[in-house]
């Protein structure tokens, strides 16, 4: 086993990795700070437009040969990658916890799930089959097949860095594409170590290129990459605000995008729900990782007849929950300010509020009385808070779930599966869980939302297909025959 992981861990400056080599210094660096440790971790090279162009050029060059790699080779590389991630779990967990201030248990969950995702994607490469259509003429044959789309720009976030980047890299590489991976400026070393697992597994130089950039330079570098003629598609995972800007730039250059952005995920609690279980599930979905999850439970919708009893249980479970730490003080302040806005406009706090604990994390919060003039109505709080709404019937619950720009995930708590299915058919979301968390996924299920949450799907064969295109091939068995002869 190479010592590259250890080299990356000990580096005082995170480099840019382009065409298998450390790119010459751009002379621009930025600080990576740990909110958990309350100290500077290291520095990172900040890519400029020249580095971005070099990364896209390298991906373009590598794609010409990588796209012809046998599917068995790509499958085996992904399986080895999963094994290496498993072997290097401790290194990856340590780095994730330092950079993103997550708990060790949350880091361990990420490792376990991304391994499952990568192995599932590897197993699906052989199933990317084409079709043999019926042709109008009996002496003509046709084939419709999938081929690799081309170099991809992947922009991945910090909040779940291993899962959200790992399954995307596996899909891109598995489909036969190359990639420029724009790592998060908040977790650059975690992302580099993840990429190294793929490279150690046999991915050739230039197929994976990893760059990061400071926030100040991000807009210029990102547009440089999107505009590059070699880049065929952009995958972005992050906030709706940034995603909207990326979509506009992509449209300018007529580039397709795969996007997973925000949500106002809701849990509907029906009268026959197991209230203890539902309350525990909702609190976990709302507060885990300091609420910094794109489809964390932001809203709880209660039937009026059970509202008082459920809120009593909810408050008890919420007050005992360890919400963890925010990735940065600025991230916590954004959530804090949304709570302040709600309070100033009449919202009532059943627990907590816009305040910090002794660790400078936000306290567990339950709020009611949220109205459409409040920022929290449409925007993610992205913190350990949840809003409670009380409704009279299923129709009101459905209307409330759908009254948001987003559409990622909803959970329904009930023992009546027929009722749950009927409700689910009316919900404008990508996925519905019954008696489970809004934060739910399995490696063999598609993951993606609708409306302002984004477009496309990740995981398994759906993720692979995002990075392929259809090509039609026809041939006449009579070589002299052509359209002009008719």
Automatic annotation (TrEMBL):
The UniProt keyword set, sorted, is: Oxidoreductase
Q: Which Pfam families match?
A: Aldedh
Q: Which stretches make up the Aldehyde dehydrogenase domain? A: 30-472
Sorted alphabetically, the Gene Ontology BP terms of this entry are: gamma-aminobutyric acid catabolic process
Q: Which GO-annotated molecular functions does the record name?
A: succinate-semialdehyde dehydrogenase (NAD+) activity
| PANTHER family xref list | CYTOPLASMIC ALDEHYDE DEHYDROGENASE (EUROFUNG), SUCCINATE-SEMIALDEHYDE DEHYDROGENASE, MITOCHONDRIAL
Name of the protein in its database record: ALDH-like protein
Biological source species: Hyaloscypha variabilis (strain UAMH 11265 / GT02V1 / F) (Meliniomyces variabilis)
Q: What is the lineage of its organism?
A: Eukaryota, Fungi, Dikarya, Ascomycota, Pezizomycotina
């Amino acid at each position: 086993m190479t010592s590259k992981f250890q080299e990356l861990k000990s580096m005082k400056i995170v480099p840019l990795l382009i065409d298998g080599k450390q790119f010459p210094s751009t002379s621009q660096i930025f600080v990576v700070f740990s909110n958990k440790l309350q100290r500077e971790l290291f520095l990172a090279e900040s890519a400029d437009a020249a580095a971005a162009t070099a990364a896209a050029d390298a991906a373009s060059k590598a794609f010409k040969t990588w796209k012809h790699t046998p599917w068995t080779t790509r499958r085996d590389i992904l399986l080895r990658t999963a094994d290496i991630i498993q072997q290097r779990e401790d290194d990856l967990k340590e780095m994730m916890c330092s950079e993103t201030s997550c708990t060790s248990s949350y880091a361990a969950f990420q490792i376990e799930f991304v391994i499952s995702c990568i192995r599932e994607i590897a197993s699906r490469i052989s199933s990317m089959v084409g079709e043999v259509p019926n042709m109008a003429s009996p002496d003509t044959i046709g084939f419709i097949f999938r081929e690799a789309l081309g170099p991809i720009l992947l922009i991945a976030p910090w909040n779940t860095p291993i899962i959200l980047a790992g399954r995307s890299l596996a899909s891109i590489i598995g489909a036969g594409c190359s990639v420029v991976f724009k790592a998060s400026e908040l977790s650059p070393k975690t992302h580099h170590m993840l990429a190294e697992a793929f490279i150690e597994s046999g991915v050739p130089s230039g197929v994976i290129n990893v760059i990061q950039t400071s926030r100040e330079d991000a807009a210029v570098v990102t547009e440089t990459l999107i505009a590059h003629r070699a880049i065929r598609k952009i995958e972005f995972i992050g906030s709706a605000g940034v995603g909207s800007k990326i979509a506009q730039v992509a449209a300018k250059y007529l580039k397709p995008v795969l996007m997973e952005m925000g949500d106002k995920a809701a849990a509907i609690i029906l009268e026959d729900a197991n209230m203890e279980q539902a309350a525990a599930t909702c609190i976990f979905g709302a507060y885990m990782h300091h609420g910094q999850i794109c489809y964390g439970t932001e809203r709880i919708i209660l039937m009026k007849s059970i509202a008082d009893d459920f809120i009593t249980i909810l408050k008890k479970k919420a007050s005992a929950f360890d919400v963890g730490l925010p990735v940065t003080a600025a991230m916590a302040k954004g959530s804090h300010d949304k709570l302040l806005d709600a309070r100033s406009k009449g919202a009532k706090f059943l627990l907590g509020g816009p305040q910090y604990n002794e660790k400078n994390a936000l306290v567990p919060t339950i709020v009611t009385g949220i109205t459409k003039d409040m920022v929290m109505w449409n925007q993610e709080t992205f913190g350990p808070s949840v809003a409670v709404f009380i409704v009279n019937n299923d129709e009101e619950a459905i209307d409330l779930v759908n009254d948001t720009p987003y559409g990622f995930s909803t959970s329904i708590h009930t023992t009546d599966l027929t009722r749950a299915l009927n409700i689910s058919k009316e919900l404008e979301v990508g996925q519905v869980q019954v008696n489970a968390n809004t934060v739910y996924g399995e490696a063999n299920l598609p993951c993606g939302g609708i409306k302002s949450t984004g477009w496309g799907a990740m995981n398994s064969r759906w993720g692979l297909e995002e990075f392929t295109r259809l090509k039609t091939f026809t041939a006449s068995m009579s070589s002299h025959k052509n359209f002009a002869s008719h």
